[in-house]
UniProtKB/TrEMBL annotation:
PROSITE patterns: 2FE2S_FER_1 (PS00197), 4FE4S_FER_1 (PS00198), 4FE4S_FER_2 (PS51379). It comes from the Bacteria. Its EC number is 1.3.5.1. It comes from Rothia amarae. This is succinate dehydrogenase. One of its GO terms (biological process) is respiratory electron transport chain. The lineage of its organism: Bacteria, Bacillati, Actinomycetota, Actinomycetes, Micrococcales. Residues 150-179 form the 4Fe-4S ferredoxin-type domain. Transmembrane segments: none annotated.
Amino acid sequence: MRLTIEVWRQENPDVPGFFEEHAIEGAQEEMSLLELIDYLNDHLVSEGREPIAYDSDCREGICGTCGITVNDQPHGPVPNTPSCRQHLRSFKDGQKLRLEPLRSAAFPVIRDLVVDRSAMDRVIQAGGFVAVDAGTAADADSMQIGHGRAEKALDFAACIGCGACIAACPNGAANLFAGSVLNHLSTLPQGKPERSKRARSIIQEIDESFGPCSVYGECAVTCPAGIPLSAIAAVNRERARAALRRGKDD
């Protein structure tokens, strides 16, 4: 399989980047995009050239660390699939692939395909947690949670924080990501005591670091965890609830 690769090269955040073109022979359809980059890097290293820098961790579609943009699509052409699970069988022999970092004002490029996603970390630091008393673990049945409620919370907790939803959004909004956190924790009783404080903190952070949501829907198509578009409704719902209950349950 022959492919032409245009890959983004950028030495550091302070210098302009550029696309570098490579012709690849001998690629296999069963290769993932990450394996394709490894294959190219082997050739670059053998030639004494600098390999392409990119993030990678589990390579099992769990962590989302590997997120890149492929032909203007975050992660790649297959919907709801992370970059490490996108395979060359989705492309045609002789096709040109453009590989670049996840594009968003909130994700400055560190090097080549590696971006700084600490803006998402700040959202979690702002309110993606519950405060509980330390000590002996409570009995498993001490807090009754219905099956439907538990499954709903788990569906929203599935978000892996890869950032593809933000890169896919024309406005660079993080409402799908923030909405999944707010939905998850407001559904469970453990998240109730700090619900209003959490909402204000998270929403303040996304207002400062990300763009506004216009309900385009590209985020849900790209999300590897299949977080539904309905998650974004939690942002305005929790914003309104927190405003109405200011001073009552903080």
